[in-house]
Amino acid sequence: MKRVVGRYSLANSNLDESELPEFEPSSDVWNPRGTPDEATQAASLSALSVDMRVTENKAEHITDKYNNSNLIVRRGKEFTIIIKFDRAFDEEQDNVEMEFLIGSAPNENKGTYIIVSIGKEKRDVSWKCRVVNIEGKDVTVGITPDPKCIVGRFRTFVAVVSGLGKQRTPKNPDTDVYVLFNAWDPADQVYMEKEEDRQEYVLNDVGVIYNGEFNNVTVRSWNYGQFEQGVLDACLLVLDTAKVPLVFRGNATEVVRQGSALMNAQDDDGVLVGNWSGEYSTGTSPTAWTGSTEILLKYASEGASPVAFAQCWVFAGVLNTFLRCLGLPARVITNFCSAHDNTGNLKTDIELDEDGKVDKGKTRDSIWNYHCWNEVYMKRTDLPEKYWGWQVVDSTPQETSDGLYRCGPTSVSALKEGELSYQFDSRFVFAELNSDVIYHQSDENGKSKIIYVDTAYVGRLIVTKKRNSNEYEDITSSYKYPEASLKEREAMQMAESRGVPTRDYFPFTEAGVDIELQADVIKMGEDFKLNINIKNQTTEKCNIHIALTGCVVFYTGVTSSVFKFENKDATVEPSQTETVQISIQAVEYMRNLVEQSNLLFVVYGNVEELNQSLSTMRVVTLRPPELTIQVTGTPQVGTELMVNVEFLNPYNFILKNVQLRLDGPGLIKTKLKKYRQIFPGGSIKYKESIIPQVHGKKTLIACLDCSALRQVTNQIEIDVLKAMDKLVTRETDKEKERVVENENNNP
């Protein structure tokens, strides 16, 4: 596969290979290099075998977790191999080359054909080579890939060069070597200084993705599985399918931007098909997935055919796997109350009718309850150094960028400062974080006016997983200055100077009265109370008329149906707070629920004395029923464990076509169990045997999913012992018993 750019042909597939002859004659057979004796001596040397020292090198390069029989190294760090010759190697007389090739058109000038010398003729190339040791016929050679080299799978050859030509070792897939980005090397674009960061953002293969609402954050574990068998090849296949030129694959910025486009299949043969319709009968619902491994392996096994279906957290989870697998430090971010702003005008408009009810026909904008994207850590040499570090990259298809559905990378630090003149897609992300919610109301003649502006609702909370913990870390301050602070105003002014439309609706007069919606954690199917707190900050008594609209809503903020509309009146004394309580019955919302069980409440208030209006909204996420997991047995590599998963249907309706997934890297490959139906009050009990393959802390994830019930998940951490730990303990106990016995026999 090649892409032609001008006069040049760019190889764009790691899989396509050119055939190199085992013997390549000298270009001038009549005038061979060196003297005849030297040519004869060199020709008599043959490489018999190449030992890639896979186990030792993988341990040194921190790639031993990859379930892959080939050598995997990180660029910029030396790895050693042992070449066995048919006679003793003479470094002063013999001329031997190591060749590393990638793609179908190897070219030294493009970094796809690397030749390093381990003999008398030295070559000045970006990859470094040295003879480490000579012991008889065995030569240990150290190879250091350039810290800017192409990332991918290289074919390896040993070539003995003589005046007659070049004699290569036969093609052998076992000697192929994968080269990855290197977060441990200061010379690499993705270098991270702290080891605890590298452990979390490169090596952790299970994470937590946050959803729900900003004041009721919920979690779901996600199996990134970047080390699982076949995943690395699947990630390279993704780049190949999109015809990403090999010469671009050493640049982290380019790989990240391409990865953003390649995770979705909106305009290419990307990995995932996005679907927010609620109809998933032709694929797997987004809420049913437990991790990336199943998705990427399915994509690869079906010939790069896009996998159905995904929503934002699935796109973010799979992109995180793609990035970490290639060695890039990455993490998943959740932005609560995320504006979807097509025009980049920092305005999200909510239309109310004259009674204060939400006008669905006129309200086009939406605010996602939450939106997940990724951050990747790297140097951006195209930006000032202060904007290096974490970069936003988003693969959920929302808007096109340079003709493709992708977003980023864009600097988090630059976003915070309102510096939007740098690439890529900073204005779009800035709007997701900083849009104002503008409430409009139409009078009896249909004329609309602005009644209230909320500058603090969007980008309310931004979180990611803490290092070495399943708790979330609040990183809102990395993206935004405190609301109404001087720094925040300066950032908005900077954004306006960079082309963001001016907030021409300011100054907007405050009413002096605030309203707030509160609700406890509510289980799906329960009645509950909604509290409207009215705070009067004026010196006058206020009478306020309140209209509350309750809508069933998708997590994207798109409303499905209105199930509640109620009017209330309240009187609030000066500098006092009054609470108005509204009862919500399960029977009102249950029949209208859509996936993820979100309810949106919008409150409109009119202060009689001030003749001023105000409004606010709140999303309530209903908690699904519990899924329980229990493990019995001794968690140890190679030892069988029994897993029990149980679920009780607490509702008065049948759950149909239920899927139950069990997943956990190092513990079990994804298991899928299907149930035709679960009757009201009925339960399922699923038992599965697992045999851990890797020691350490592992996470077992379970997920139950059907059209009537989404987001039913649970997880359990298992500390798996090494295979010998138990044996050593037993031997120690026996020795203690013998000592005690001897002491008893010899007082």
TrEMBL record:
SUPFAM superfamilies: Cysteine proteinases, E set domains, Transglutaminase, two C-terminal domains. Ca(2+) binds at residues 434, 436, 483, 488. It is an enzyme of class 2 (transferase). Its EC number is 2.3.2.13. Its cofactor is Ca(2+). It holds the Pfam family Transglut_C. Gene3D superfamilies: Immunoglobulins (2.60.40.10), Transglutaminase-like (3.90.260.10). It catalyses: L-glutaminyl-[protein] + L-lysyl-[protein] = [protein]-L-lysyl-N(6)-5-L-glutamyl-[protein] + NH4(+). It comes from the Eukaryota. Residues 18-38 are annotated as: Disordered. The keyword Transmembrane helix does not apply. Keywords: Acyltransferase, Calcium, Metal-binding, Transferase. InterPro entries: Ig-like_fold, Ig_E-set, Papain-like_cys_pep_sf, Transglutaminase, Transglutaminase-like, Transglutaminase-like_sf, Transglutaminase_animal, Transglutaminase_C. GO terms for molecular function: metal ion binding; protein-glutamine gamma-glutamyltransferase activity. Binds 1 Ca(2+) ion per subunit. The active site is at residues 312, 371, 394. One of its GO terms (biological process) is nervous system development. Residues 304-397 form the Transglutaminase-like domain. PANTHER family: COAGULATION FACTOR XIII A CHAIN, PROTEIN-GLUTAMINE GAMMA-GLUTAMYLTRANSFERASE. This is protein-glutamine gamma-glutamyltransferase. It comes from Triplophysa rosa (Cave loach). The lineage of its organism: Eukaryota, Metazoa, Chordata, Craniata, Vertebrata.
